[in-house]
Write a structure and sequence with these properties.
By secondary structure, the chain is α/β, with parallel strands linked by helices. The chain has two domains: 104 residues, 2-Layer Sandwich (Enolase-like, domain 1); 199 residues, Enolase-like C-terminal domain (TIM Barrel, Alpha-Beta Barrel).
């Protein structure tokens, strides 16, 4: 028998964070706690995302609907069919992983048959702004190994060029969040290749991405909004070079590991990304990111504060999650 607790939390960001669709100053997350009969507790965090029709209220409602099944013995394997992929299942799935690790007296990555995630190198994200403002942000972190830039199809080349002028060293990922038009992709990709950009995330709206199959793009293109679960891989393989695995879309670590395996089986590279959440959300994502080509788990670095037991990140290098946090 498992007892359930669920709550919403609000965490302030370090400043306004803007992408092509919107801007935010707070992160609204949902936290799940699962307690076994022996008193062992596991927990997980998710971030409901309006882009996918989610809200705090809808996600809490989906989780509350699992109260009776959990009390009746629902386990993590059964959860995969009991709940649809998405933020709600993510929080419950990750709480199960934490609970299982604690009851076994082992780390979660050991249970998954994986190496320790200690030493992952994450991108650091610069929110959308003017070329001058983004260059000023980049100058302050020019020594980091990987920068991720939010773009929108407007002054994108000017933005990247201004950043390259002050930060010539870092690897650069750009993320349009569906903000480009189809007639922009080839030209922008060629121009970004000349600026030594390593990856373009989701240039087109998900509904329009079939056009990518016939487009020349010297910079690899990554599916984000177009990619949710392993079921998407067959279609994406003809359009993209990389898929972004996010636990809030896969429905947890269980689904994330399945998506990463399916992507590699189809010849796609893997990126592991995040919503803007606390270290509690990053910890399970680190397991999915162990062998990823690109890692973007900087959510806590964009926040004004983090969990008391937090993942330590120095110069973009992440330490393994502490036991007091998760897993």
């Amino acid at each position: 028998m498992i007892t359930l607790e669920v709550r919403g939390e609000t965490w302030p960001l370090a400043g306004e964070f803007r992408i092509s669709r919107d801007a935010k100053t707070e992160s609204h997350v949902v936290v799940v706690e699962l307690t076994a009969e022996d008193g062992t507790r596991g927990w997980g965090e998710c971030l409901p995302y309006p882009r996918y029709g989610e809200s705090i209220e809808s996600v809490v409602g989906q989780i509350e609907a699992m109260r009776a099944p959990l009390a009746d013995g629902l386990d993590r394997a059964g959860l995969q069919s009991a709940m649809a992929p998405g933020a709600a299942r993510n929080a419950v799935d990750c709480a199960f992983w934490d609970l299982e690790a604690k009851r076994a007296g082992r780390r979660a990555w050991e249970l998954a048959g994986l190496a320790s995630p200690d030493g992952l190198v994450s991108a650091f994200t610069l929110g959308l702004d003017t070329p001058e403002a983004m260059a000023a942000q980049a100058a302050a972190c020019r020594d980091l190994p990987v920068l991720k830039l939010k773009l929108d199809g407007g002054q994108d080349i000017a933005r990247v060029r201004a950043i390259r002028d002050v930060a010539p060293g870092p690897k650069i990922i750009v993320d349009a969040n569906e903000g480009w038009r189809p007639d922009q992709v080839v030209g922008l990709s060629c121009a970004l290749a000349e600026l030594d950009v390593s990856l373009i995330e989701q240039p087109l709206p998900a509904a329009d991405d079939a056009a990518l199959a016939t487009m020349t793009h010297p910079v690899p293109i990554c599916a984000d909004e177009s990619c949710h679960t392993a079921d998407d891989v067959a279609v994406l393989a003809g359009r993209y070079d990389v898929v972004n695995v996010k636990l809030d879309k896969t429905g947890g670590l269980t689904g994330a590991l399945a998506l990463a395996a399916a992507a590699r089986g189809a010849g796609l590279e893997v990126m592991v990304g995040c919503m803007i959440g606390t270290s509690l959300a990053m910890a399970p994502a680190m397991l999915a990111a162990i062998d990823a080509r690109f890692v973007d788990l900087d959510g806590p670095l964009l926040m004004a504060k983090d969990r008391d037991a937090a993942i330590e990140t120095r110069d973009s290098v992440m330490s393994a999650p502490p036991r007091a946090l998760w897993g």
